[in-house]
Amino acid sequence: MRSIRSKHSLRVARIVVVLALLVGPLGCATSPTGRTQFLLNSETQMAEMGRAAFADLESKKPLSTDPREVGYVRCVANAITSVLRPDELRPLGVTRWEVEVFEDPTANAFALPGGKIGVHTGLLDVARSPAQLAAVLGHEVGHVLARHSNERVSQTTVVQSGMAIAQVLVGADTPAKQQLFGALGLGLQYGVLMPFSRTQESEADEIGIELMARAGFDPRESVLLWQNMSRASAGQAPPEFLSTHPSHATRIRRLQELVPKMMPIYERAIATGHRPNCG
Predict the structure, then answer these.
(1) Among residues 140, 201, 210, 221, which one is catalytic?
(2) Residues with Cβ < 8 Å from 165, sequence gap 6 or more?
(3) Around 168, how many Cα atoms within 13 Å sit in the side-chain half-sphere?
(4) Per-block mean pLDDT, blocks of 10 residues, the chain (279 long)
(5) Three-state SS for 120?
(6) Distance CA 189, CA 185 (A)
(7) I need a labelling partner for 273 at 20 to 30 A (CA). Which of 52, 115, 214, 218 fits?
(8) C-beta separation of 198 from 248 below 8 A
């Protein structure tokens, strides 16, 4: 029995290495920060998926009926998207952005391929200024610019395909095999997919703080935003190892490091007339 399990373990270990190589180094695109990416889908496909997902959300979640609230959010979102360059938008096929505010108490926002932006009303209790809201929306638009949805779909496709192949290679279904594949699934989730997601989150922070600075929002407020987020979620966040997001402390530290680089961009934006009036 030990010999059989040992052989299974060796085969699965080899498979883990192959899958890690598939998910990691393979690349056919480059992100805005210069990171190599593995993308399987066209941006046209991703835009269709994004629009369909957004339409589904609109049909299921109530929209805010407060015109001042909606106008405020759209003002900040439009300030962010208005500074996007044609070379940034052209690969995405986005010609216009739709912005909706959903009645939801959670402090959340999202941007989807196809130019769709959603903001939960609960976010406005945490993002307490236009610049802090801009930090969130810049981050979410950063996900779209960096094609993170495409990247995640591509990674998941590779992992699922690899797992299916691995099951065939390992052979007959046994309790030992089930146990080993359970371990393999956890290894892929925590060892490959989750860390990659934290990389994407950090990349979206970097893109987002630059976008808010280009739009004329003080990048120093991004740090204040995440300090607010940290207080609002005190005691609720899982350990960073088990999270798809960097810890608040990690995120705040990285943003603090980026602020000095962003200040000249912000000051140049103000000097050239980018002064969003979204009070």
Answers:
(1) 140
(2) none
(3) 5
(4) 50 51 58 83 86 91 96 98 92 90 94 94 96 97 91 74 49 49 44 62 95 98 94 65 70 96 98 93
(5) strand
(6) 6
(7) 115
(8) no
